[in-house]
Amino acid sequence: MLFVHDIIASLHSPTLSTEASSLLYRLPSLYNIIIILQCTHSLNIERTTGIRECEIIQWFVEPEARVEEWDKLCEVQSDKASVEITSRFAGVVKKLHYEAGEMARVGKPLLDIDIQGQIKEEDLAALSGEGESKAQELAVKGSASPPPSGNTGSNSSGEAEVAPVSKSKHASLATPAVRHLTKELDVRIEDVNGTGKDGRVLKEDVYQFAKLRDTAPVDTPQPLYTPPPTSDGPQKETISQLSNTQYQMFKTMTKSLTIPHFLYADEIDFSGLAQLRLRLNKVLATSPAGNISKLSFLPFIIKAVSMALHRCPALNARVDVDPNTSKPVLIMRNQHNIGIAMDTPSGLLVPVIKNVSSLNILSIAKELSRLQTLAASGKLSTQDLSGGTITVSNIGNIGGTYVSPLIVEKEVAILGIGKVKTIPAFNEQGQVVEKQIANFSWSADHRVIDGATMARAAEIVRGFVEDPGSMVVHLR
User: Fold this and answer.
1) For position 262, what pLDDT does the model report?
2) Fewer beta carbons under 10 A from the terminal one: N or C of the chain?
3) What letter would DSSP give residue 227?
């Protein structure tokens, strides 16, 4: 039996002094000797390092496997290092006292090795410095007889093949010679079906596996993505006529490019408006107003824009040329006709909510619902699409945080609304709170609207949206 003391000594002692504490003939007819090795420094190791056990990482042998002198037996690891334990004698492994992954205790047997034949005194001398005195401790329990010619070890080159069996827990174990062969042939021993006892892998198994692997046809891996087939020849282009809606958009946006734009963006806190909207929607859920059972943010924003236009009327004007002087002039308009950009099956359309200044939030929501229904069915009239004085584009309804909207002809400003998002923020007391924010992006005609005017109007809109209760004071 090989004791765990030797493992610990191998891990931590650069020079290991061992002794044979007892060598007994267990099977007299075969001169089988159980080797018991003990480390003379085992107690010192325990006192200095506190190591009392180590883990069996893997076995290189299995029961009934023949080992030669200095063949690797196992690999073990403590909390400080790992090492491979080798055999000091040639013989046959009879028993493994631990499975791979188990903890081996110091002072307990590790494995049993049977040695065939008379043990030599020089072998004992190799284990201890007191070879002659320790050799006298041998006790013969029976008469000696030559070992039979049966299977006394597993010689990998001479062992006869048997019918293949399923792999056992020792199937991946093999002699060092077989493992060396697997490295030379680049073979994973776990992939080889062993034909030895309990599925043990032999040299012949490794050669056969390597031969089949090298002669097997190589499977071409299928690409993860197959590009679509391409036709030979030059690029083909076909003409697609613009729809009526696309043609109108083409003309309008082409004229918009003649307007010098400037962009003004700000971040708006929707938390207060979200709470008010939640309360109002609870009321509308039980008592709908006409066909309105739920309010969105948009009617509140439209009303806030209209209220800002009362203080900044230039944003509701249009640029024209005086026929008498041929000079540019600003045409002021009293009604707030706010266009709402909508994504419809036929494309981008901008129906107009007329005279918003005279409407309340619920009336704006009803008119917005009517225009959305007509736009979805393609039944918007010319009256619904004309007369706008300023435009609101709620691109955030689809997605996106920032937008740079283009001013519509005969207008001087447009508002683009980004998506409402929930973010962590600090309140006035320095506490982290949850806020709902969105970005407002304004574009203005820089020929007649300066940055200060646009900023003041944007601040008014932001104030009404962030504090919707203040709208009540300024409602007409």
Assistant:
1) 94
2) C
3) P
